[in-house]
Amino acid sequence: MPETFAALLFAHVIGDFILQPGWMAADKARRGPMGRMDRAALFALVFHIAVHGALLSVVLLPQAPGFAFALALVIGSHLVIDFLKGFAPAGSLLAFLTDQAAHLAALGAIAALMPGLWAGSFWAAAPWLPGVMALIAGAILTTRAGGLAIGLLMAPLAENAPAEGLPSGGKLIGLLERGMIFVLVLAGQPGGIGFLIAAKSILRFETLKDGGANPRSEYVIIGTLASFGWALVAGYLTALLAHLPTLGILPDPP
Prior knowledge:
With 254 residues, the protein is mostly helical. The chain folds into two domains: 2-125, no CATH class; 126-254, no CATH class. It contains ten helices and no strands. Helix 1 (2-18) packs antiparallel against helix 5 (93-113) and helix 2 packs across helix 3. The chain is flat, with a radius of gyration of 20 Å.
């Protein structure tokens, strides 16, 4: 089952966070009166679902026993979840988290229902591949998905954001810091995260030096804690999946 879940998760993460541009996410969520979708919204949703179907076909290949049923379950569940998300308020963090939780629950249920799906695929001849897929999926969820989630969390506070020194500098810093935390967690060196916090505190001293009453300092603290917290949770969940004996890409911790 872990191998099948890792393959399904990999295809999902690539489809949602790498091959889904911003315009597609915005268009497929747009609704008219009575929840109706215009042609652009319908096209974006159908195209997005087709991308997921193509990715699953590459990851598992149609020769796997039960592939057609699994493909129907993945496409059907994704279509329903994304359609329902379109009724949520735009830019809602709760909607984003609920949407992704629903997708992960659906993939977990499919993997539990068809645990041998991966074993029947062409790629099963490479026993190390599901572990690599799990690590790549975890890295994307930590960095890219984390950036989207933190952005939604901080959007209402944006008026108190510090002035950017470089275009999109804050986003790049967040991406790098979550990536570093992910690597430290998987390397079994979480203590190094303390040095990362100290280094960022020193670099942000000019923003934070006026004390907690400064809205800009609170903005930085909230964003930093949220970014670190997301990276820690995603990193440890990835490590848990990758430590499973059937994947075995990471050694068991001492």
